[in-house]
Amino acid sequence: MTQPNKTQKNGYQNSPFLTHGLNRAGLFAVALLAGCLMSGTTLANEQIARDQQCFKCHAIDSKKKAPSFRTIAQRSDASEIKDVVRNGITSLFGQEKMPANRRISESDLNALTQWILAQ
Ligand code: HEC
């Protein structure tokens, strides 16, 4: 391609979105998609835990306010985990220890439970 004349050059500068701007956004989208596909479902399920604020009190492999997900995975099975996450744990004195999550969808709850068990 020959050098664009002055008018064409201004044209490019005035519409970055229609020229390389769009290409860059497109490349970025492809890279992002590839990244998601490669990392598989682990990341997606961890994202549910993040979205549900589980990491405020739990960590994957160290005790915070609550037992680590690794400890939980060792001593609990799927139905126990699902029950606790859905209904929470309240102490005898009515103090909420593990908050209930009534609004989490069944499929997110299943994915989250499988993710915890895999830690
Ligand atoms: C406000 C703090 C807090 C948040 C947020 C929280 N938890 Fe908990 N969780 C706790 C505490 C504290 C316990 C321990 C309760 C006990 O054993 O008395 C617990 C216990 C649990 C247990 C049972 C562990 C066992 O004893 O086997 C599971 C499973 C669990 N949490 C999963 C989750 C998940 C998943 C999320 C996100 C949806 C979450 N928690 C969010 C505080 C929290």
TrEMBL record:
Entry keywords, A to Z: Heme, Iron, Metal-binding
InterPro entries xref list: Cyt_c-like_dom (IPR009056), Cyt_c-like_dom_sf (IPR036909)
Protein origin, superkingdom: Bacteria
Residue intervals of the Cytochrome c domain: 40-119
A GO molecular-function annotation: metal ion binding
Matching Pfam families: Cytochrome_CBB3 (PF13442)
Name under which the protein is recorded: Cytochrome c domain-containing protein
